[in-house]
C-alpha cells in the first residue's frame, strides 16, 4: 500500500469520525426490521395468500418447442373439461395491444410483448394457451387436452452463430437477431495495445443464471364489474410501471387500474419487468368478470422468469512495463433471449457490461463493442448487479492476469491503477462519471481486515505443503440512485429518476408515509420509517410505510437499480421536514410559544426547558377535530407530498476479498473467508446494510460456483428444477465480514448512496480470482463462470494433456 | 406442477395394502415418505390410479436387534436410523452414511422402504444394503419372499419388486467386532445426491486385509460392490501398492454416467480418490480395533 493511499484512508476516516459525532440519531441506528415479526412468523401477506370468493385459477400451456410456427391450436376438448371456465388463445385476445420496450438508442430493434404467443413460439416455456378453471388442478388436467401443432424452425441457441447472416431470425420485423449494437471509444485502444509491452487477454464467459426468488411470481386480478375497475395484485418490484403498461395494453385509464405489490418474497430483478402472465390475468378477469389468479410453480419460474448474464467477452488489457494500464479493449456478445424485455429493453444487461468494464481504473484508451443477440431462450432482464457482475469479473480477472505476468502483487497493481481520492470526479472510457468513489479506501480496508501480508505468507506456507490455497480481490463501483438525467437502462425513454413521498398525520395523530417504491424483502419499511422519524421527530414504530401501490402516489415506478434508499430517502427527508414545519406552526399557536422554543422528538412537540408538550395525537386532534382551537385561516393539513430527483445520482463502491481452498483430490472448492469493504454513503441502518451485503454475496457465490441455466441443442432447459439448477444454501456460504467506509455522498440528499446490488457484483470476480490464484501453480486460468469442480477437472485434464503434448510447457 | 387425479387409500395393515395393490391391477402406488414419489407425481411423470398410504399401518417403523442382524421396518424414517443408538453401535458405517442423506426436513419424512424401492443409483441406503448384505422381506397377495439386496437392484429406479409387492422388512447384517469401516462421499452441496461415494468394511487379520467389502454408488446404473478390487485386497498386507491396484481396478470397472453435475471421467476420478481415502480410514480403524 502506498503512503498516499494510506493517508487518504486516514483523512477519510477522520471525516467520518467527525461526522459520526454530529450524526443524526435514528438514521444510522441498528433498528431491528419492523417487518420481520410479520414475515418471520408466517403472517406476511403475499399475493398467493390472498383469496377472494369465486376466484378462478390459471394454468398455461407453454411451448415445448424452442423455435417453431404454430400451425393450429385445438382447445375444444379442454373447453369441455371439468371445472374449466375459459380457454383463451392469442386469437381470443386480439383487442389487447402489444407492449413494446422502446429505446432512444440507434441500432436497436424492439419486439412485441403479448399475453400469449401467436403464430410463432420463440422459447420453450412461452405461454400459448391460458386455461381458466375452478382450481389449478383442474386447469392443469385440461392442459393435457389441448392439441398444438407446431412446425419446427431452426433452433437459435448459440449467440455467436445467431449473429451470422445465415442464422434463422427470431423476429422477422427486426430482420436480424442482433437487437442492439453499441460502441464506446476513448483514445486509440488498438494503437496503445499494439505498442504496449504487457498484454493479457481472454475469452471470458459468464453463463446464464436465473434469479430464483423464494416466492415465485404470482398475479391476482380482481375486477369490479359495476365500475369497470381492475386491481392487479402482483409480486412485482415495479407495480407503477406495470400499471402504466396495462393502461396501454388494455386501453384503460389509470383511475380504473390499480396495481398493488403486497409483501413480495424476493425479486433480484426477476420481478422488475412486465410479464405475459400479468397481462393475461388482467384480461381474463375483465373478460370473465371475476377474480383470476396465476401462481407460478418452480418449473415455470425456471422456464419463464427473466434470466441474467449470459455474455461472452473477448477482452484485452495492455499495460506499460511498470504496470500502468494503458488500454482496454472488449467485444461483448450478450445472449438476450427471445424478447426485448419491458421496460428495460434487451440493451440493459449487455450494454451495461461495456459501460462498466473500465471500472475503478484509469485507462486512457478504451474500445468497447457490444451486441445484444436474440436467441430462442427466455428473455434475460435486469438481474441484481446488471451487467456489472460480468464487467467486474472480466476486468478483475485481467488485472490478476496482468499482475501475474508482471510478477506484481495484485493489490499493489490495483492501487497503482485506481482513480485516487483526489482525482474525482473522473470520467472513464465508456463515458461514465464517478462522482467520489472510495476505491483505494475500500481495497485498503478489505486488506487490513484480513492482514493481507500475513495472509499471503500463510498462502506461501500452504502452497509449500501442496495445498491449493487462493486469495482473490475484486473492486468495482456502480451507479446508484440514478436521477432524471440518466436512463437506468441505456436509451430507455422512461424516467425513473424521481420519487415521491406523501407523509400524512391524520386526525388520530398517526403518521403514514406513502412511496412509489416496493420492498421485496430489503427492509424498506424500516429504513424509510427511520428517515421519516429522523426528520419529522417521530418514532420509528409509529410510522406506517405504504409502498408497492400504484395508487399511493401519482408516479410510482418501484424498486430496482439500488435507488430506493437514495430517492425515497430523499423524498422522505423533504416531505418530513415540511410536515415538521407544520407541526411547529400549529404547536406554536396551541402552546403560545415561539417556534424557536419548540422541539419535535419521539412523536411529541415540547417547549424547550418545560414539561409543556403535545403528543402528535393531541396536536392532530386540536388541528383537525377540536373546534376553534386554531383559527380557520391558520389551520394547515399536517401533510406534505414531495418529489425528489437527484438529477444525476451517485455511486457506491466496494472491494471484495475471498479466500478459498481447493481439495486437490476431489476438487471441491471451499470458501474459507469472505470480506467486503463497502461504501454506500451514509448508513441508514447498518444491520440492514449488512444483510443486503450478505444476501448479495451469497448470490454472487452462487453465480461463481453453482448456478447455471443450461439449454441443450434442442433449446430445452435441462436445469428445470432445483435439483439441477443448484443454488448455494447456508452450508455453502462462509461467514461474511463487512467493513463500512461511510463516505457520505455529496450529491444526494442525506448522503445515501444505495447498495442493494453490490454484493452480487463483486463476489463472482473475487471468487474467480481466488480460485484462479489457488490453481495458478498449475498454469490454469479461470475464464468461465460458474467454475464447478467439473469445469476445474476438465481444465486440469486439458492442461495435463497440453503439457504432455508440449513436453513441459512454460507455466 | 399439480399431480394428475388419483384415488387415495389409507391402508391399516400390510394385508390391506397389498390387497389394494392387487385391486389396482398394477396401477397402484404405495406412498411412504412421499419425498421421491410426490415430485414425480407433480411432474406428472407417474399416473397411478390409486395412492396406497402405508403411514397409518401400525408397527411398520422399528429398528430391532435380532442377534446376527438388525431388523428395520420399511416405514422407518431416515432420521430415526441416523439417530438410533443401535445403528450407531452395530452399524457405524450406516450411521455415518445417514448424515449424507438429503436435508433434515427430508430425512424426517423419507423412509428406508421408500429409498430402497425407489432405487436411486446415487442414494445411500441402496448402497448400504449391498454393503451390509441386506435381506429384504417382500409381501404380496400370494405371500412372502426374501431376496438378497445384491439381486434386488436391476437398474436406475428399477428393482425386482413386482407391481403387487410391498417391501415389509429390511435385515442388515451386523458388523463383526473389530470391523474397520469408512464412508466417503462427494456431492455438489451438502445434502445433494452423491456424485460418487464409497463405503467400506474390512477386518485386520494378523496384518492382512480380510472380509473386505466395498460398496460404490453414483458411478453406475445401480449401487454396486467392487468385487474385483475386493479380491485384489483380500489376504494382502495393507500397502500403497495393493491400494493403488484396488483403486485402479475400481476406476477400470465403473461406467459412470455423464450428467449436468459431473462427467463420467470426473466421477471415475472421484470414486478412486474416495476409495483410496476410505480404504486407509477403514484399515486404520480395523488396526486400532485389532490392537484394543
Ligand atoms: C431434495 C431432495 C434431496 C434428496 N437427497 C437424497 C440423498 O442425498 N440421498 C438419498 O438417499 N435420498 C435423497 N432423497 C430421497 C429421499 O431419501 C427419499 O426419502 C427416498 O428416496 C424415498 O423415500 P420415501 O419414503 O419418501 O418414499 P416415497 O417417495 O413415498 O416412495 C418412493 C417410491 O417407493 C415406493 N415405496 C415406498 N415404500 C414402499 C414399500 N414399503 N414397498 C414398496 N414400495 C414402496 C413408492 O411407491 C414410490 O415408488 C432426496 C429427496 C429430495 C426431495
Could you explain how this protein is built, in words?
- The complex is a heterodimer of chains A (811) and B (292).
- By secondary structure, chain A is α+β, with helices and mostly antiparallel strands.
- Chain A is 31% helix and 24% strand.
- In chain A, the strands form eight sheets. Chain A has a seven-stranded mixed sheet. A six-stranded mixed sheet of chain A has the order 9-17-16-15-10-31. Chain A has a four-stranded mixed sheet with strand order 20-28-29-30, sandwiched between helices.
- In chain A, helix 7 links the parallel strand 12 and strand 13.
- Chain B starts with 6 loop residues before the first strand and ends with a helix.
- Chain B has helices at 14-23, 37-42, 78-83, 85-90, 92-98, 104-109, 112-118, 124-131, 149-152, 227-233, 240-253, 264-291; strands spanning 7-10, 28-31, 50-53, 63-66, 69-72, 135-140, 143-148, 153-155, 158-159, 166-173, 180-187, 194-205, 208-217, 224-225.
- Chain B has three domains: 7-53, 2-Layer Sandwich (Uridine Diphospho-n-acetylenolpyruvylglucosamine Reductase, domain 2), CATH 3.30.43; 63-173, Uridine Diphospho-n-acetylenolpyruvylglucosamine Reductase, domain 3, CATH 3.30.465; 180-291, Enolase-like, domain 1 (2-Layer Sandwich), CATH 3.30.390.
- In chain B, the strands form four sheets. Chain B has a five-stranded antiparallel sheet with strand order 4-5-10-6-7. Chain B has a four-stranded antiparallel sheet with strand order 11-12-13-14, with helices on both faces. In chain B, strands 1-3-2 form a three-stranded parallel sheet, with helices on one face.
- With 292 residues, chain B is α+β, with helices and mostly antiparallel strands.
- The site of flavin-adenine dinucleotide has 31 residues of chain B, from strand 2, helix 6, helix 7, helix 8 and strand 10.
- Flavin-adenine dinucleotide (FAD) binds next to strand 2, helix 6, helix 7, helix 8 and strand 10 of chain B.
